[in-house]
Amino acid sequence: MSDKPSVLFVCVHNAGRSQMAAAYLHHLSGGAIEVRSAGSEPADQVNPSAVEAMAEEGIDMSAETPKILTTEAVKESDVVITMGCGDTCPIFPGKRYEDWELEDPAGKGVESVRRIRDDIKRRILELMASLDVAPVA
Hints:
Strand order of the largest sheet: 2-1-3-4
Strand content: 15-25%
Number of strands: 4
Structural class: alpha/beta
Number of helices: 4
Largest sheet: 4 strands, parallel
Low-confidence stretches: none
Shape: globular
């Protein structure tokens, strides 16, 4: 087991919100937090508008692929953050759960995705503060 806190981001398709959140947390924590993301019904690819919006922040998500949510991923995480995946996420005692109400970037252009990206970044910084991890970037 790692001494690092671990965070799992879950949304339906693991193609937009959860991917951007994971990318931000990985980037801003400099590896001080173990980061996972998954979806209850993963898409075929990460949303191109999300990839473009994150590239504007200097974060490359082009190699990411949507992953299926597993019980193991939830068990191995200290914090589970859901983003519109309903009741599909298994609940385990002793875990910290948060539900972030975020607009779904599916089918939206980069202009719309920028607002979602900026909301996610704000929430990531708040999450890091709650885990006593200072941003490195």
